[in-house]
Here is the input.
Amino acid sequence: MEKTAEFKLYEKLLDEFVETEVKPRAAEVDELEIFPVDTVKKMGEIGLMGICVPKEYGGAGASVPMYAHAVRKISSACASTGVILSAHFSLCVTPILEYGTPEQKAKYLPKLCSGEHVGAFGLTEPNAGTDASGQQTLATEVEDGWIFNGSKIFITNAGYADVFIIFAMTDRNIGVKSITAFILERGTPGFTVGKPENKMGIRGSSTCELIFDNVHLGKEALLGKVGQGFSIAMKTLDGGRVGIAAQAVGIAEGAINETIKYVKERKQFNRPIAAFQNTQFVLASLYAKTQAAALLVEQAAEAKEQKLKDLSLKAAMAKLVGAEVAMEVTTKCLQLFGGYGYTRDYPIERMMRDAKITEIYEGTSEVQRMVIAGAILR
Amino acid sequence: MELSAYKNVYVIAETRDGKVQDVSYQLLGKGREIADKTHSSLHVILAGYNIKNAAQDLIAHGADEVIVIDSRDLQEYLTEPYVQAVYSVVEERKPNIILVGATSIGRDLAPRLSARLRTGLTADCTKLEVEEDGSLFMTRPAFGGNLMATIISPNHRPQMSTVRPGVMKKLEADSQRKGTVTNVTFQLDRPKSLVEIVKVIRKVQSSDRIEDAKILVSVGRGICQETYPLAVELAKVLNGTISGSRASVDCGTIEQARQVGQTGKTVRPNLYIALGVSGAIQHLAGMEESDFIVAINKDRYAPIFKVADVGIVGDIKQVVPALIEEIKKYKQ
Amino acid sequence: MRVICCLKQVPDTTEIKIDPVKGTLIREGVPSIMNPDDKAGLEVALQLKDKYGAEVVVLSMGPMQATEIIREAFAMGADRGILLSDFKFAGADTLATSSALAGAIRKLEPYDIIIMGRQAIDGDTAQVGPETAELLDLPQVSYVKSLEYKEDGTCLVTRKVEDRSYVLRVKTPVVLTVLGEEVEPRYMSVAGILKAFREMEVEIWSADKIDVDVTTLGLKGSPTQVKQSFGKQLKAAGHTYDNVSAAEGAKLILEALIDKNLL
Here is the structure.
């Protein structure tokens, strides 16, 4: 399908933004584990932080495929910045938009859209990873609201987020059916953010523990209905997987672009290594696979946009394939770089480290297979 | 338009603080050649304030006549007063060719003047050729220097061009040369002059960024603590900026912001002098587009010599001091 | 307050390659962009919009493809966009271009400030600004670095040249040409892009729309003509001198530098 002139201009904006703001900082963001606060502010200014939110709440009113394209382009230069946008938008802004009351939307969305506030999502716990239903965090209903106790781990954006979507059980006896979603603000008494994890990749994204020690929340903190939390979490993650799949494809594209540049310059045996058939065949396969994954991402984004019932399946396929492609592409591209690729003078080793997380977070590749199998073996 | 009514070659001299700029002498060199070939005369329009003394020197450098417009209203360059001054002369004299330096002043004045004359103008020429009938072929770079175009003005006179500084050669001064000096009085049409100077800030600090530098002296692995001051001194006499290879950053000789190459910056100066730079592919990628490359290295097989316009196989410690001396001597 | 901003669509000259055999430009696949200096000028105009609520009208001349840069200007915040597009404009040199622009600008009276980029990266002439100013009989300030608008209808303009800067006071209306390297243009916004396509229209003006003598337009109205064009000659191979003394080496370098006017 030919791209519209509107989409082409949007791509131009992303290209300019990535070349000027994201790419030049990527190595430093990784090396020094910098959360790129300025870049996030600028993403807010150009409208990426609230990209699909209607204008009335300060958003840009764009489509999910446009959002996915932003994550993809940004991740092609810096996967840390890519996941900051994805976690913020897919996992915090979107559930508020979809499940929030008009008051909650009016209160939280404008600042989340402008980039003044960053969002995060807290579901995973030390003992509730793939089995997210095993939530230990407890929200006890009291007269004027809720008292929270428990903790969350591996929470993306945590160190810099202002608004958190938090899941907790309200009644251990009922179990998963009591899981409920809440909106929690930074600075609420009893709520602390732990030290950031020292990670292999996406080192600029701030991944921390959240600790709730008798945190008191008012009734207005409830997102959706009591007991709707698990469903909100799963549906939010379906959308989130579109973002991570886009991130994975972006990492792969970034790696291929760097490699194309390198193999044309690098000479061995008096020829650019691009002239060798091994180089050509490896790159050709990787490019074709990456484009195939990109089509799956576009399909999943469209499903989210159209609110199609099979979003879950399409998002799982996009993320599974995208993540595996990202891993294969970065590993094989690094091989084409040889010894130089193993050094931090070139971005390829960073891309390989960044790629690995896409097979793990927002549902491991195994979880994606469970979702896909569940859908096709019904 | 009766083309034959337009005769002779006119150079518009550029003055700053009463001093004629070098580009004007360069234009005289070319103008002389054009005037001789077309059997016509070479005139200079010298506008400014307290600039009369420069007239004889312009004659010594090739002018047949210097038309002096000396007025307090022309003390600092402003578009309208200068255009009025020059226009009044040109209107009356009807030149065949007008040459202006392609400086920020010339490129402000010339288009305003050409539009007032409703004639053509060719910008920033690097080559001028004339036929005996007085037709001028003006060659200039376009598309970021990727393309050269030769421009003509077949049906309009004067034929005007701004000429890039540093391209044409000035003549040796000949104090025996004879020429006339004509003084023209100037009356500014004030209501038309709507721009006034509030402040002049001189000596705008030149940027130290290597991407902006016109001249780079670049150091590599072959430059150590002992020889680095030589590089700095060479940069100083050339009015250049220091840059270097990754090796020189790694050993702490220069800071990372000055690194040229794949993992550093891409530069395209007019002159790139590589001292002790071997020229790894990663380095060459960042500098091979430089206009003119000089390399000094003791290793005759260093890859830098493959891209160098002038390469000297030799010891930095001996060649660089000798070069600094030569440049100093020449500049005096 | 109305600010008119002239924009040119140009090939991205940093992406241009030369056919090594024919010595001609390979334009295929070279993206067309908003001329960088013009984009800087648009930024200056949009700052006047931010501060004083100025209406920003962008004006371009070229084939229909040039609507692209007008949409881009909309996405950055421009309010109105006009494209002069007519075969009668084709083949214009700087003077004929200025005739067309001046004619269109007259149709947009009343205006306060006309902003252009210092020069376009394809032609590199820097002539259209001053020539248009002359045809409109307006004052000009070229090489503008910054601008401060005063409520009394004057501007304080900083003009930067080789060895000095001037602060100039000028009465509006005025034509300014802006230095690209001194101004950081803003990004488009996502909302701006959607608005540019869904809510705004580019006005297309033909030669009839502007009251200008057609003999001053296009190829016919151009005093200058391109006689021929050719690729830049490939750099002559360099020469490396082995077995010369330090003094000889230094002399060889000096001679080369003098010959190339590098001193």
The interface with chain B takes residues 265-267, 345-346 of chain A (CB under 8 Å).
